[in-house]
Amino acid sequence: MTATSSPETTGSTDSLLEQIRSLPKVSLHDHLDGGLRPATLIELAREAGVELPTEDPEALARRFRENADSGSLERYLEAFGLTTAVMQTAQNLRRVAREYVEDLAADGVVYAEVRWAPEQHQQQGLSLDEAVEAVQAGLEEGMAALEDEDRIVVVGQLISAMRQSDRADEAVELAKRHRDRGVVGFDIAGPEHGFPPSRFAPAFTALAEAMIPATVHAGEADGVESIRDALVSGRAQRLGHGVRIAEDVSISEEPVTSDDGGDAYEVILGDVARWVRDRQVHLEVSPTSNLQTGAIAPFASDGTATITDHPFDMLYQLGFNVGVNTDNRLVSGVTLSGELALLAEAFGYELAELADFQINALESSFLGQEEREALSALILEAWQ
């Protein structure tokens, strides 16, 4: 994959970034193991005997960002081997989760769903339930501390099953056991190509029978058929990334007469794209991550993608339900405020459009209706 990305801000976006940071935001696609603080990773690695490429926090963050921008998937994934290695005890999971909440609050996030795979955190004997309980304890500590300061941040867990490990049935049962204790939904993550949702169809049926909502990583490392399978076999209510739905959108070869008498070209939606748009299936888009992982490479005319090649704006203009996310804040070197500022600079969005993305995400969240309505009022009042 070849990509060209830029730092989180340029001189022209600094003031906008600060304005966005002060406003309430919604984050639906953020991996717990991709968002550690560099200093925390260094401290925990030292205690656990995990060797890092550097023990300087700024240098470590820079290395991960350079790896993510390199175009090498192997280098991109280096960080996850290190972060999961230090997240193997209840104490460490609790700390990482608490700091996760604190960092979201510092960026102005008021509602988030954090996804992670408990099965990846059992190397030192934790049970799946113990791992979930530790993360929930950390999240609650963080939320309670902010509440004491009259600040609001609400965070729910999404239990992820790794596609390559065939433990989806266990993960579903885990989600069912903790659905009233912090877990709000389910996800499958890991290699998309070769591990379709249909492989886990019984697990998704069990989720549906238990009335637990699901989001599915699809349309990132694989194309339209992966999205179709997420919708059919995975019964996905949201799509993790989903950007390659744009491959199911085309332009007519022959012009048609427009209302003003000139020539225009018709936008043609394939069956999957039409289903996703017409039923407002939410797309959890992560702009910088999509650039770094090569998800938007098919849309670059010269083979070198930049953020302006991202189909985000086209999808938004066509009426798709799009939201903005970070995916992995440490690995990609981003914040949610920075991602919004990046899109504003790339596509000329005003605050009104950026507010739309928050409401899209909130209304597609796995919160209850009453909670969504309360947060929606808070967000709309602030963004006005």
UniProtKB/TrEMBL annotation:
<dbReference type="InterPro" id="IPR006330">
    <property type="entry name" value="Ado/ade_deaminase"/>
</dbReference>
<comment type="similarity">
    <text>Belongs to the metallo-dependent hydrolases superfamily. Adenosine and AMP deaminases family.</text>
</comment>
<feature type="domain" description="Adenosine deaminase">
    <location>
        <begin position="24"/>
        <end position="379"/>
    </location>
</feature>
<keyword id="KW-0862">Zinc</keyword>
<dbReference type="Pfam" id="PF00962">
    <property type="entry name" value="A_deaminase"/>
</dbReference>
<keyword id="KW-0479">Metal-binding</keyword>
<dbReference type="InterPro" id="IPR032466">
    <property type="entry name" value="Metal_Hydrolase"/>
</dbReference>
<dbReference type="InterPro" id="IPR001365">
    <property type="entry name" value="A_deaminase_dom"/>
</dbReference>
<keyword id="KW-0378">Hydrolase</keyword>
<protein>
    <recommendedName>
        <fullName>adenosine deaminase</fullName>
        <ecNumber>3.5.4.4</ecNumber>
    </recommendedName>
</protein>
